[in-house]
Amino acid sequence: MKKRSFKHIGIIAAVGAILVAGTVFVAFGGAKKIIHIGEDTRVEIDLENGTTTETPIGGTGATEAGDPVLSAGATETEGQVSGAEGAETGASTGDVAVPEGGAAGDPAASTLRIVGVVLEAGEDSILLDRQFPEGGHEDTILHIDPERTLILDSVSGFPTEAGQIKKGDSLYVYVGPAMTMSLPPQMTAVLILTGTPQDAAAPQYVQAAGSLEADGQGGWILKGTDGAEIFVPADCPIEPYLTRQIVRLSDITAGRTCLVWTGMDGTAEKIVLFNE
């Protein structure tokens, strides 16, 4: 049984970084491995022992094969990450690699929403039992950058402190697009939403793909860069994040980020617009 403690978590690989899907070659501790992350599985090929270990993402179990097969595009340059679509280099032990052109907390960076329950909480990191929509779970370490990570109350949208997060809390977290290939994986949180009522949904963190588009019935459509489309009534309340300036729905333009609370039908009920 694995121990869920920061003190006892063994990091078996921490050179290079993997995006959500991709293939990398790594060398560490004298061992050479090919690691491939697919949509549903993580495959590790040990070039020294000639074994292949396949683990379902979000689950357990492994199979072994005798002959290692190099994934397409992978090379054998020791210590260098290559061959992955969009893979980035430069991660060090315990660090999250951030793709060039977007840093964690930067609205221009793409994000992924994950959901889970806190197993351990600290001021600068959280051990999260991540829950997958399709079933299964996986321990994940979330790093908190005090200069960039936003921690907000899910109901009010106001800031709260990392120290308020405790074991057993359910979190909705938006993370940067990269993670380390350690076990458990590590990611940097862009936005953490706490205090979501059990009978309510957390607000959505949306980066606008463009200005609102008229829906032909007096309302608007907010399109996110992630493909989301949210109906926004003409009278939907909108307020700025921690300022007293006056903002309007027309201030939602390409690249602006906001929190959107929606009803059961997916219609926006309130919007908080972040500063440019």
List keywords for this structure.
mainly beta
Largest sheet: 5 strands, mixed, barrel
Structural class per helix/strand content? mainly beta
Number of helix segments? Answer: 0
Helix-strand topology string? EEEEEEEEEEEEEEEEEEE
Q: Strand order of the main beta sheet, please? A: 6-7-8-12-10
**What is the mean predicted local confidence, pLDDT?**
74
Q: Any idea what the shape is?
A: globular
- Intertermini distance: 47 Å
Strand percent estimate: 35-45%
User: How many E-type strands?
Assistant: 19
- How much helix is in the residues? under 10%
Cα-atom radius of gyration: 21 Å
Task: Give start-end ranges of low-pLDDT stretches.
Answer: 7-31, 59-109
Descriptive overview:
The protein has strands spanning 17-19, 22-28, 31-37, 41-46, 51-56, 112-121, 125-131, 137-143, 150-153, 170-175, 178-180, 186-194, 204-207, 213-214, 220-223, 229-232, 238-240, 257-262, 268-273. The protein has 276 residues and is an all-beta fold. It has a 5-stranded mixed beta barrel with strand order 6-7-8-12-10. Strands 2-3-4-5 form a 4-stranded antiparallel β-sheet, with no helix packed on it. A 4-stranded mixed β-sheet has the order 13-18-19-17, with no helix packed on it.
